């Protein structure tokens, strides 16, 4: 949704061209509905067996409602249709703000440290106008706000903050793999962009570190994850 919204805002017609402007944003609203509509339908249909009284307020008849008592999270379903999933995460998975900050979770924080360090390095570089330290990658005089890559990096930043504050920290690598720049940035670090295109690419100092981490993560993960260790 963030990518769609950012793109539509940047290419929107001027309000002075009223017919084109209205048509453009009506199509945008339909795109948004297409993106989030199925998820909303899924949440609503999932809560039907658990919140009969809530649905009856809208005139819907639920078979067996007289024998079913609403769950504790049902009162929060409107407007938060994802209240059931939020309750499950909080009640059974211990997901919540700073809940994972326990001494016993230190190994999991160490497991997530490399990918978080790589992410922070990339985000800092992007918003300062650099991909690799000392090498300017954005056009001179043009800030990051004007680039087409910004939605991807904002999405990445949001997930990193979410990983630090809320989620189970050991799933950070899997979570951040939803961000394309997570793959672009290591690729830029691995090879020296100053080398001529036809010349053999030489690994940089950063590249050796990144490549070693990826190889180690792959080999150890292939052994530990099937053995039910928290390696994701």
Summarize it.
The protein has 9 helices and 2 strands, in the order H-H-H-H-H-E-E-H-H-H-H. The chain is mainly alpha-helical. Pathway: Glycolipid biosynthesis; glycosylphosphatidylinositol-anchor biosynthesis.
Describe this structure in words.
This protein is an all-alpha fold and 232 residues long. The chain contains nine helices and two strands. It has a two-stranded antiparallel ribbon. Helix 5 runs antiparallel to helix 6 and helix 8 (181-190) packs across helix 9. The longest helix has 30 residues, at 18-47.
Which series of helices and strands comes N to C?
Answer: HHHHHEEHHHH
Biggest sheet details: 2 strands, antiparallel
The overall pLDDT, averaged over residues, is: 77
Q: What's the quaternary structure here?
A: single chain
Give the overall form. Answer: flat
Strand content: under 5%
Strand line-up in the sheet with most strands: 1-2
**How far do the termini sit from each other?**
26 Å
Helix content: 40-55%
Tally of DSSP helical segments: 9
Uncertain runs: none
Report the strand count: 2
Q: What is the gyration radius calculated from CA atoms?
A: 23 Å
Content-based structural category? mainly alpha
């Amino acid at each position: 949704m963030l990518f769609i919204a950012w793109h539509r805002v940047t290419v929107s017609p001027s309000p002075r061209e009223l017919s084109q402007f209205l048509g453009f944003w009506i199509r945008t609203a339909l795109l948004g509905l297409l993106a989030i509509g199925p998820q909303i339908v899924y949440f609503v249909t999932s809560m039907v067996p658990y919140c009969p009284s809530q649905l009856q307020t809208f005139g819907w008849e639920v078979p067996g409602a007289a024998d079913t008592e609403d769950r504790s999270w049902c009162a929060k379903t409107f407007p938060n249709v994802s209240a059931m999933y939020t309750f499950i995460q909080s009640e059974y998975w211990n997901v919540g703000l700073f809940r994972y900050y326990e001494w016993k979770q230190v190994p999991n924080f160490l497991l997530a440290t490399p990918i978080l360090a790589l992410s922070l390095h990339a985000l800092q570089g992007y918003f300062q106008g650099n991909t690799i330290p000392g090498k300017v990658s954005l056009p001179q005089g043009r800030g990051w706000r004007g680039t087409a890559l910004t939605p991807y990096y904002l999405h990445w930043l949001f997930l990193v903050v979410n990983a630090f504050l809320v989620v189970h920290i050991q799933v950070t690598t899997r979570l951040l793999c939803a961000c394309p720049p997570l793959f672009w940035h290591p690729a830029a670090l691995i090879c020296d962009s100053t080398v001529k295109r036809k010349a053999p690419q030489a690994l940089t100092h950063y590249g050796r570190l990144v490549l070693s981490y990826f190889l180690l993560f792959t080999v150890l993960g292939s052994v530990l994850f099937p053995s039910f260790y928290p390696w994701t």
